[in-house]
Specification:
Layout: H1 2-25, H2 35-43, E1 48-53, H3 67-83, E2 86-88, H4 111-128, E3 132-137, H5 143-158, E4 164-167, H6 172-216, H7 225-231, H8 239-243
Parallel strand pairs: 1-2, 1-3, 3-4
Length: 244
């Protein structure tokens, strides 16, 4: 009976386990799919294309030049997995920037060329069969304006066909702002803890000082003035005066 119950339990758990495993190993990477796989994925409901831009630029002596592209790849991969209805296109490794010989490592595009590239990729995604295109980037500064302009332009062009282009501005900027806010909060918390600790120390020190003063002056009359002359014992007569 126990073996039968265990068999039933395993049989009930097997589908959910297999489903979770399937989700984990599901391929959402457009570049690593064949055309029949892409067609089947779109037919199955994966009708959103994620267009993410990285970048190639010097990022100091401690970071590789392709850092934005590497981070962008992992971020867009995670977004596609969470959405469940999207495929992510190859991350674009070039964005608006300017090269410099003194800090070699940056290869950039002009904002105009970048805008044309985004527009072309988005329209090609729509031509492939996607109903929604979401543009995102791993950069701040003035680049979001280009994303927004292209998204607005193309959405107006294709909305009547039931197809849309969006600019998601809460990826890089929001993450950066949230992290900056966290740093500020952490700093303020540390300062508050330090002040509280200082106040506690001052209170303890003051209490100890008060106890010391109380022990030295139990009547609380102080050490100066007439009260001090009355409170403190006077010296007795000297040996000569005592002998007399």
């Amino acid at each position: 009976m126990r073996r039968t119950s265990l068999t039933i339990a395993v049989a009930l758990l097997a589908p959910s386990t297999a489903s979770a495993q399937a989700r984990k190993t599901e391929n959402n990477e457009f570049a690593m799919m064949t055309w029949p796989e892409v067609k089947a994925a779109i037919a199955a409901g994966k009708t959103t294309a994620l267009v993410y831009t990285g970048g190639t630029e010097q990022r100091g002596p401690q970071n590789v030049n392709g850092g934005h592209t590497l981070m962008g790849t992992e971020i867009v991969k995670s977004i596609a997995a969470r959405l469940g209805n999207a495929l992510w296109l190859p991350v674009l490794p070039y964005t608006p920037n300017d090269a410099a010989a003194d800090l070699p490592g940056t290869i950039g595009l002009t904002p105009e060329i970048f805008g044309m590239v985004l527009e072309r990729i988005s329209e090609q995604a729509i031509a492939t069969g996607f109903k929604n295109v979401v543009i995102m980037g791993d950069h701040g500064a003035g680049q979001p304006r280009t994303y927004a302009e292209i998204a607005t332009k193309l959405d107006a062009k294709y909305a009547s066909q039931g197809k849309h282009v969006f600019f998601c501005d809460e990826v890089y900027a929001k993450a950066q702002n949230d992290f900056n806010d966290w740093l500020v909060c952490a700093w303020l918390s540390a300062q508050l803890a330090r002040r509280r600790s200082r106040h506690v120390d001052d209170a303890v020190f003051g209490r100890r000082q008060g106890l010391g003063a109380k022990a030295a002056d139990p009547d609380g009359r102080g050490r100066s003035g007439p009260a001090a002359r009355t409170a403190w014992p006077r010296p007795g007569p000297g040996p000569e005066r005592a002998a007399a």
